[in-house]
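haha ok so turns out i had the wrong file open the whole time. this is the CORRECT one, sorry everyone. sequence first:
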Amino acid sequence: MSSSGHGQGAEAPAQGSDISAWPEELPRTVHLPRSQQIATDDSDDEITEKLRRQGARISKGTIAPAVFWPAMVVVLGVALLAIVFPETSGSVMEKSQNWIVANLGWFYMLAIGIFVAFAIIVALSRWGSIRLGRDDDEPEFGLMSWFAMLFSAGMGVGLVFYGVAEPLGYTTNSPKPGWDVEGAEASGLAMAQTFLHWGLHPWAAYAVIGLAIAYAMHRRGRPVSIRWALEPIFGDRVKGWIGDVIDVLAIFGTVFGIATSLGLGAQQIAAGMQVIGLVDEVSTNFLVILIVVITFIATLSVVSGVGVGIKWLSNGNLTLAGLLAVAALLFGPTVFIFQNFVESLGIYLSEVFHLTLDVGAYTRSEEAQSWFAGNTLFYWGWWIAWAPFVGVFIARISKGRTVRQFVAGVLLVPTLVGMIWFSIWGGNGLFRQWFGTGDLGDITAEESMFRIFEQFPATQLLSVLGIIVVAVFFITSSDSGSLVVDMLASGGHPNPPMWSRVLWALLEGLLAAALLLSGGLTSLQAGSLMTALPFSVILLLMCVALVKALSLDRAVLAEHERLARLERVTAHITGEVSRTHASTDEIASLVDDRIDYRLTRTRGGIGRGGHRTRVEGRKSAPSAPSAPPAED
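then structure:
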C-alpha cells in the first residue's frame, strides 16, 4: 500500500480464479493475502515473523521498543512524580483540567456528538452490509453470547460506583447550572443527564474505534494495533514513527483509564468495608493499601494464565451484579422504578440534542466550569481514555458481523442495559430522598449503594456481595487492560510476554495509587481528561479513515461483482452459440469464405483474367487453390 492512499500497490486477481467465490487476491487495500495473516494454529515465532513482514518492529523480547519504552517511561515518570511531589502534581493536574474545561470543553462536546452521528450514519448507509471478515465468514459467537460480552464490556466499576449517586446528586448537592427546577422536580432531568453520560454517547466513541480496529483486523488481516486503523490515511507511514506515536497515545489512554477505574473501585470497596464494620475510618493510606492488595491479586491472575478461570469469574460477577439489581428492583419501590424509567426515557429523547451540545456557554461562572469539569467533561475524557481497551475487546469478539450489526449491537444493547441499571439504582435513591425518609442528601458516591442496602432484608449479605462485585471488576479490569496494553506494546502480538504483562499490571496499580495521593478523585478526573485530549483527535481521524476504507471496499467489491456478471454473460452467450452451430470450424468457414462485394472490387474488362478474389484484412486466413486462368 502506498503512503499516498489506496490506489497503488494493488494485486490483480489471479487468472483462472473462481470469480464467484470470495477473491483470495483482492487488492491489498481491501484484503491481505492469507500468507501474511495470523492463523489460529500459528506458533509464537510464526506470528512474530508475520508481524515483522507486515511492518512491525519487534525485538527479541517480543516487544516493540519504539512503543514499549516511551510509554513505560512516561507512565512511570508521572506516577513517581505524583508520589514524590503529591501537592505539586495535584496542583498541576487541577490547573491543566481547568484550562482544558475553559478553553477546549466545546471540542470534547462536539467530538462526542460527531461520534454519535457518524456511527448512526455508517450503520444506515450502503456500507452497513460490509462484513467484518471475508464475505463468507460467519459470526464467531452467537447473538446472545455476543450481547452478553458487550454487556460485560459496558458493566464495570463505574456503573456500580455512580449507580445511586449520580441521579441523586443532580437533584441535591450538584444540580446542573442553568436548570430552572430543583429537588424532586429535577429528577427527570437528572435521569436524562445520567442517560447521556452512560448511554449512546460513550458507546459511540467505542463503536468508532472498535469498528476501525475490527475492519483492519478481520477484513484486512492486520495485527491488533491502533495504528492500522489509520492506515487508510497514512498508508505505509503507520509502520514508522507516526504509528508509534498513535500506539503510545493509546497506551496512555488505556493506562490512565484503568487507573481511574481502579481508584474509584478502591474508594467504593473501602466505603463498603466501613458500612459493614470492618474498618472505622477510610484514609488515603488505607486506599493505597487496598490498591496494592488487589493489584497483587490481579497480578497473580496474570501470572497464573488461567484465562478460562477469569472468564468464568467475570461471567459469575456479571450474574451477581444482575442479582443485586433484581434485589434492588424487588425490595425497592418497584412501581416507581418502572415509572422513573419510562418518564426519564421520554425526557432524554426530547432533550438529547440539547444535552449533547450543551457546553454551558450562557452560564459563565466558576460554579458552571467546576460542574462540567467534574461531570460531563470528566465522563467524556474517561470514555475516550478507556476507548482503546474497550475498542480492542469488542473488535476481537465481532468477527463475521456486518458493519450494521456491529454498530446496532454496540450502541443499543449497552445503552439499554445502562439505562435500566440507573433507573433501578437511581430510582431507589430518588424515591428515598424525595418521597421517603429523605436522608440521602449528603451521601458520597462511594457509600451510596451500601446506604440503599440499609432498608433491604439481609443488608450485611448484600453489602458483602457488593464489595465482591467491585473487587472482581477491579481484578478483571486490571488483568484484561494489562493484556491489551501489552499487545499494543508488542506490535500487536496476541501472546505478548508474561513479564511485560505483569509489569503493566503493576504500573496501573502504581498510577492509581499515585493519583489518589496527589488529589484523590480530582486528580483521577484530571488524568483522564488530559490523556483523552490527543486521543480524541485520533478518534476523529479514525472516522475519516473508516470512510475512505469502506468506500474503497465497496467500490472494489462492486467492480468484482461487475466482472463476475460480465463473465457469466460471456459464458452464457458462448454456450448458446456453441449449442446452435454444429462446430466452430463451420462458423469459421462461413466467415472466412465470404465474397468481397465492395464497389472498388468491380474492375474493367482489361486484365480481368489475371485477377484473383481475396478477402481483405484477413491475411492469416487460408485461401483455396485458385484455378488456372481461362484462355481466350
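Residues 71-136+149-557 form a domain with the Amino acid/polyamine transporter I fold (CATH 1.20.1740).
again sry for the mixup
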